[in-house]
């Protein structure tokens, strides 16, 4: 009924247009394009062709007839020439284009080249122009495509290199670094990337003047005249320009680097550049073979010190040496920033203020001191009555001293080798939370080493991470009810109460992360891997009582101070594979796990609450509420209680695909999530949550669903609808619950998850 009303409205609107005398008398003075069709394409979609070839972006098939758009175009031209406002006729500001045969021939050639570039070397494209009738002067355009066979790389390649030493380098590159694989579809853009990679590889081998211009990559039609299996001829040199640099095959070594203060304004507060300190950030030595990666690594080290607004480089060369001259624009000694913002929770506004103050060159020419403070008065749900929102005061203070080097013994630094953006950080912080239920403080001291072995590999190692936590309860009914609530949870086996006992948590931890691509909302192929190791309370093993007396005296609490000892391990692996000929859809896979073991008998083998694993929520198993799944087959009486665990297994598979454009790009996704958490048998939790090798696989939870991702380039909005498939808390013969899915509050209600960015 609704669609019929819309159709009637359109008919009436057109009738009003057609009743105008001017419209009835209007005729085109030249032929116009009514529609553009693409026919014959099979392996390359019409969407792909319209996206990549400008002449095919529009089909010109629209609601109103071409005469309507042409009529308003003529009226607009008259009004514009008289200086009048075109008013509502701007709605029809995209008339059908005039027939332009030369432009259509250009589009035809672009289709041919696009197909050839994507491996269809023997494709054919024809153009057909059909006149609808001479009186209307409208034509339909058809591009007819014969794709024919597609060519693939054979990897039966040959080399023509004048310089024998350079030839050996090229063969080494070809065997270890080439981005072209056997049976890959021929792609001429891939050949351009191969040239870029060769040039970059040789610039790391001492060839300072080597460039893409010296490389020729040609298809070898002598091996296979049909060009179905294509080999490549690597020819060096293959200069096309007469003025190209002919020193492409000469080896160069680094000379001494120099540093220049390029500050043009008054820089009395900046001081003279400390060239000795800057030289220590340079990863190459005088006499080393030239390497563009080592040069960039050195520039990144200098820029990461945060002492300079810009870092650029120029070169002086001799017959065998490259002398880098690094030009620097120093930053001011002091920087202050302030941000006032707010949040809204259940209609209650909550303002917050964040201030940051940075002081550079405090103890040396390259260190800096960061002070940050955040004060917030924001609303949150109560612990006891979750339907009631209350404002809470939260204060966070921290100070961090940063040095652009690692304070480690020389032999250890030598073993680590050349590093990117290494840092040593020392700092302390203070957190204060004032809620109706409690007053909580956390004083922390930390030290961290951070470095990168390459732009893709990041390391962090902390020798000191100390946290002293204390909680006080005001003399109020709310605080009394909260303490009773914690005691009730303790009797149920939930160790949330430990988070509110006075505690001393110390640890040593190490993290390694690898990422084969740079983070982006754009779908891309690659993989990531992260592993973390942590040892908590290690020094307590040297103390007989496993406690530190002066910490107990400092807290002065009538409760026992908790000193934790534990070991924790976690890993995270993710793989992303592009699918389809267009490489526009993606299959994403995630597998994460962890193991945390508390060996402190003095705390009943319990972990600090923050060191537990949790599962469920928008970036985890989406069919369960955040942190509410598990442990094991345990069925919580209320899903208001977070469920901690010591063992974690979690995996997700998600198929992502492009849908349509709407103020951005809309993507869809189908996903399956699986996993659970468990506790050790020596814990005080419920037995249903214990991990056992002969039964854990029966307690794997499974959920599935569909999601939308709205990509606005600068951020991505995500909505996921998920339902349970296997619920481990059900009896063995009732775990399959997919058939009980509903939008209401039934046994298996659909969970709605809203988030920013991809779930993984």
From TrEMBL:
Where does the UniProt annotation locate this protein?
Answer: Membrane
Q: Entry's InterPro entries?
A: Bac_surfAg_D15, BamA/TamA_POTRA, D15-like
Q: Which domain of life is it from?
A: Bacteria
Q: What is its main location?
A: membrane
The protein here is known as BamA/TamA family outer membrane protein
Q: Where is the Bacterial surface antigen (D15) domain?
A: 423-755
Query: Oxidoreductase: is it a keyword of this entry?
Result: no
Which PANTHER family does this chain map to?
Answer: SORTING AND ASSEMBLY MACHINERY SAMM50 PROTEIN FAMILY MEMBER, TRANSLOCATION AND ASSEMBLY MODULE SUBUNIT TAMA
Keywords, sorted A to Z: Cell outer membrane, Membrane, Signal, Transmembrane
Q: Which PROSITE patterns match?
A: PROKAR_LIPOPROTEIN
Record-annotated POTRA domain positions:
31-147
């Amino acid at each position: 009924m609704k669609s019929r009303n819309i159709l009637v409205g359109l008919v009436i609107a057109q009738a009003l247009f057609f009743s105008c005398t001017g419209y009835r008398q209007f005729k085109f003075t030249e032929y116009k394009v009514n529609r553009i069709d693409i026919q014959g394409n099979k392996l390359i979609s019409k969407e792909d062709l319209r996206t990549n070839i400008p002449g095919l972006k529009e089909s010109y098939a629209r609601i109103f007839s071409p005469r309507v758009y042409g009529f308003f175009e003529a009226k607009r031209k008259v009004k514009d020439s008289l200086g009048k406002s075109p008013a509502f006729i701007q709605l029809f500001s995209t008339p059908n284009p005039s027939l332009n045969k030369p432009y259509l021939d250009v589009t035809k050639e672009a289709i041919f080249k696009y197909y050839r570039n994507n491996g269809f070397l023997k494709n054919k494209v024809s153009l057909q122009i059909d006149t609808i009738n001479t009186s209307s002067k409208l034509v339909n355009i058809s591009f007819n495509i014969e794709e024919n066979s597609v060519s693939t790389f054979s990897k039966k390649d040959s080399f023509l290199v004048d310089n024998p030493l350079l030839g050996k380098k090229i063969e080494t590159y070809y065997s270890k670094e080439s981005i072209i694989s056997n049976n890959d579809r021929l792609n001429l853009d891939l050949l351009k990337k191969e040239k870029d990679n060769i040039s970059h590889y040789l610039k790391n081998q001492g060839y300072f003047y080597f460039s893409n211009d010296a490389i020729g990559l040609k298809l070898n039609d002598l091996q296979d005249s049909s060009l179905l299996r294509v080999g490549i001829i690597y020819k060096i040199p293959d200069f096309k320009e007469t003025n190209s640099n002919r020193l492409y095959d000469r080896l160069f070594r680094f000379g001494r680097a120099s540093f220049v203060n390029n500050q043009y304004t008054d820089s009395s507060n900046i001081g003279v550049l400390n060239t000795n300190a800057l030289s220590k950030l340079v990863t190459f030595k005088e006499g080393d073979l030239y390497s563009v990666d080592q040069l960039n690594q050195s520039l990144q080290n200098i820029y990461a010190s945060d002492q300079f607004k810009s870092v650029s480089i120029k070169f002086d060369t001799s017959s065998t040496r490259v002398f880098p001259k690094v030009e620097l624009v120093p930053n001011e000694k002091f920087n202050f920033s302030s941000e006032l913002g707010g949040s809204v929770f259940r209609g209650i506004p909550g303002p917050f203020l964040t201030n940051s103050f940075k002081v550079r060159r405090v103890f040396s020419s390259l260190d800096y001191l960061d002070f940050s403070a955040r004060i917030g008065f924001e609303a949150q749900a109560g612990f006891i009555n979750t339907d009631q929102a209350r404002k809470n005061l939260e204060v966070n203070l921290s100070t961090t001293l940063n040095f652009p080097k690692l304070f480690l013994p020389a032999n250890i630094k030598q073993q680590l080798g050349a590093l990117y953006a290494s840092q040593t950080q020392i700092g302390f912080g203070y957190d204060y939370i004032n809620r109706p239920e409690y007053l909580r403080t956390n004083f922390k001291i930390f030290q961290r080493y951070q470095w990168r072995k390459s732009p893709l590999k990041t390391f962090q190692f902390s020798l000191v991470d100390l946290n002293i936590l204390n909680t006080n309860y005001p003399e109020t009914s709310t605080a009394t009810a909260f303490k009773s609530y914690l005691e009730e949870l303790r009797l149920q086996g939930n160790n949330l109460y430990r988070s509110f006992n006075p505690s001393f948590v110390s640890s040593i931890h190490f993290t390694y992360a690898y990422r084969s691509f740079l983070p982006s909302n754009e779908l891309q192929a690659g993989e990531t891997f992260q592993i973390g190791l942590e040892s908590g309370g290690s020094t307590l093993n040297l103390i007989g009582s496993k406690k530190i007396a002066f910490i107990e005296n400092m807290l002065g609490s009538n409760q026992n101070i908790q000193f934790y000892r534990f070991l924790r391990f976690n890993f995270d692996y993710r793989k992303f594979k592009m699918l389809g000929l267009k490489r526009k859809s993606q299959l994403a896979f995630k597998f994460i796990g962890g193991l945390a073991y508390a060996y402190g008998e003095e705390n009943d083998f319990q972990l600090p609450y923050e060191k537990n694993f949790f599962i469920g929520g928008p970036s985890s198993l989406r069919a369960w509420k955040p942190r509410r799944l598990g442990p094991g087959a345990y069925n919580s009486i209320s899903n208001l209680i977070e469920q901690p665990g010591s063992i974690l297994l979690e995996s997700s598979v998600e198929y992502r695909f492009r849908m349509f454009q709407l103020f951005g790009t809309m993507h869809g996704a189908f996903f399956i999530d699986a996993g659970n958490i468990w506790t050790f048998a020596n814990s005080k939790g419920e037995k249903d949550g214990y991990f056992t090798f002969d039964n854990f696989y029966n307690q794997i939870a499974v959920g599935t669903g569909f999601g939308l991702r709205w990509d606005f380039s600068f951020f991505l909005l995500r909505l996921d609808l998920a339902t349970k498939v296997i619920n481990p808390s059900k009896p063995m013969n009732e775990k399959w619950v997919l058939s009980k899915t509903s939008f209401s509050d039934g046994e298996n209600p659909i969970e709605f998850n809203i988030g920013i960015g991809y779930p993984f």
